[in-house]
Every structure is written in structure tokens, then in C-alpha cells.
Write a structure and sequence with these properties.
The chain has 290 residues and is of the alpha/beta class. The chain is built from ten helices and 13 strands. Strands 8-11-9-10-12 form a five-stranded mixed beta barrel. A two-stranded antiparallel sheet has the order 2-3.
Length: 290
């Protein structure tokens, strides 16, 4: 059973400078909610209630967001703004914040290792908040279904253009059934020529606790950081690793263009703003054509 999900939020967010100089990139809004709320909602929709943030100094806004805002709620209640009060309270009631500090920026693998004392089950989930995934069935829930059958590590993968694989971990696939592969090898950020496939690992994982002894002794890899992909690759020498080509659409919100695309898509779906926003975009298109 998967009870816990680790969400690393300790990154510096340099690709979003200057905005991320003062605001954690995970708190940047997609439509009317911060990115971090979408991934927390995915975890909850996947049946996981224990959310563990791996954080650092300067990221307290994330923990504060899910805390009770007494002053705000008091003002809204006094002014009779019941709908806004309900929204504010729903966020604070969403989860009880559990967090652990990553005191040094030593990579994603190290961030996962920091959460080790808080993991109680044989396996746990990981969500990277940069990846916003739009799907009928939550992406994490899709992976959990595979884990229930295999009792082994499962990573989400996406088929990418060959020229993009150098930014990702890439698997050497052994097909099992539709969308499901056994990962014979994982390579962190290979050149397009050296990549074993164009199936790239994206920010959803179900990991067994066997990953922790490997992370504990793993030497730094690319960029001088402890790479989670390297640890999973080492684990594949003794344990089966499964890779699932998830159903849905991913938006890379760690990238400015991907972030803008997500805002457009989710803005068009907004129950109150969507139609007006759609009309605005049509006006822009007409204006550009003239």
C-alpha cells in the first residue's frame, strides 16, 4: 500500500528568475491556483494523504500556503465573503504539512534520501512539481495500479522527440504490454546519439525502500549531484524496474514556455473565466492577422 508521497521543493528555481528570487516557483499560479496545489490534489486523488515536502530555507511560503490564515479568514468572515472564506479554508484543510529540510543542494537523489526517516511503508511515491499532468486518471494513480501488480519500482515515461532526450533520464526498454516496459537500464541526460531510446522518465515515481541504501552510498553524477536516475539504474541490477507510458498530457512548468502553455489550457477551462478568456484569445488572433 502506498501511503506517502515525497514532493521535493528545495530547488532554486533559476529558470524562473527574476520571479523566483522572492517567490518559490512552486507558488507561481496556473490560472488561479499555485502549481504546488495541483500536484497535492493529484496525490490526494490517487488516495495518498501523507504529503512530505522536502524543502529548504526560503521556501516557507509553501508550508504557509497550506496552513490556517487566521487574519485573512477573520477579515473575510467579518465582511460576509462566504465564497472566498470557503476557498481559503479548503486549502488549509487540504493536508497537514509534513516537511524535512534539504540543507545542501546535492540533487534530486539526495532530496529523496532526506525523506527517509518519514517513510513507513515498503514503497512510497514521488511527485516532481515541475511536471503538471492533465489526465482523466491521475498519473500517480496509474503508476500505483502497476505497483499493485508488480510490487516493484515504477517510473512514468513519455515518448519525446530524439533531440530533447538530453534533458531527461532515458530508459532502455523491454516491452511487456501496451504502454508498459521493463527498464533494463536508465541513463541520465544522454546525448541524442547515445540515448538507448526516446522514452524519457518524467516526474512521477513509485519507489521501493530498496532505493535508500543505494542513495546513501551513491557518488555524485552529472552536475556533481546525486542523481535519482543513477540510483534507479543501480537498483535495476538487482530489482525489476517498470516504466509506464502514462495516459495524459504533460506540461513542463519548470520551463517558461511550458508554464505559459499550462496557463492558457487551464485558463480556458476555468469555470468562471474560461469563456471570457477564450473570447479574448480570439480577439488577439484577429488582431495579429490584421
Amino acid at each position: 500500500m502506498i501511503k506517502e508521497v515525497v514532493i521535493p521543493v528545495a530547488g532554486l528555481g533559476t529558470r524562473f528568475l527574476p520571479a523566483s528570487k522572492a517567490v518559490p516557483k512552486e507558488m507561481l499560479p496556473i490560472a488561479d491556483r499555485p502549481l504546488i496545489q495541483y500536484v497535492v490534489e493529484e496525490a490526494l486523488a490517487s488516495g495518498i494523504k501523507e504529503i512530505i515536502f522536502v524543502t529548504r530555507q526560503g521556501k516557507s511560503a509553501i508550508e504557509d500556503y497550506f496552513d490556517t490564515a487566521f487574519e485573512l479568514e477573520t477579515v473575510l468572515e467579518r465582511k460576509g465573503k462566504k465564497e472566498l472564506l470557503s476557498i481559503a479554508r479548503s486549502v488549509s484543510q487540504m493536508i497537514d504539512v509534513i516537511s524535512v529540510r534539504q540543507k545542501q543542494p546535492l540533487g534530486l537523489g539526495h532530496a529523496i534520501l532526506c525523506a527517509r526517516p518519514l517513510i513507513s511503508e515498503d514503497a512510497f511515491a514521488v511527485i516532481l512539481p515541475d511536471d503538471l499532468i492533465d489526465s482523466k486518471t491521475p498519473c500517480l494513480s496509474q503508476l500505483i495500479s502497476i505497483y499493485k501488480k508488480t510490487k516493484a519500482t515504477v517510473v512514468a515515461i513519455e515518448r519525446l522527440p530524439q533531440e530533447l532526450v538530453s534533458s531527461y533520464g532515458v530508459i532502455a526498454p523491454e516491452p511487456i504490454e501496451e504502454r508498459l516496459y521493463k527498464a533494463k537500464e536508465l541513463v541520465e541526460k544522454p546525448s541524442p546519439e547515445e540515448a538507448p531510446s526516446n522514452l524519457a522518465v518524467i516526474g512521477r515515481y513509485v519507489l521501493t525502500k530498496n532505493i535508500f541504501p543505494i542513495l546513501e552510498h551513491l557518488p555524485p553524477g552529472r552536475g556533481g549531484e546525486i542523481q535519482l536516475t543513477d540510483a534507479i539504474n543501480e537498483l535495476s541490477q538487482t530489482d525489476p524496474i517498470y516504466a509506464y507510458e502514462f495516459e495524459g498530457k504533460r506540461y513542463d512548468c519548470g520551463d517558461k514556455l511550458g508554464y505559459l502553455k499550462a496557463n492558457v489550457i487551464y485558463g480556458l477551462r476555468h469555470p468562471k473565466l474560461g469563456e471570457e478568456f477564450k473570447a479574448f484569445l480570439k480577439e488577439l488572433e484577429l488582431s495579429d492577422n490584421s
